[in-house]
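Record 1 of the preview.
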Amino acid sequence: MFELDPRLSADTYFVGSTALSSVLLMNDARYPWLILVPERQSVTEAFDLLEADQAALWQESMRLGAFMKRHFRADKLNIASLGNQVAQLHIHHIVRFHHDLAWPGPVWGIGVAVPYAEAEAERCLSALREALAHELPLLSPIQS
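->
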């Protein structure tokens, strides 16, 4: 049975599910930042997935990335799977702007995360769920 890594669970909000993955919102209001986590137990690398799941993850990631770049009018989108802190396979999708705090470097290690206020998180989650459900047939029925 799939279990989300406790650190990912503590640092994110659940947005919805795809056929393969959980979609999470990173609790850092400085950047629009979503994470895909394939719902497969004990997977740390993309090559650990079955080939069909590898293909599905790539398609989900590309569709999510294209949506984010368009939706947030990003200058650039950073997509990364590092796993140095959390071994469970997860893929970061981070919207970048020429004026953001970390530009042009990576977001990691720059400043301190700014958690969403509760009302702001709810507004952001609602907007993301609606936009993803309407613009991409990516999310399955969404849980709140």
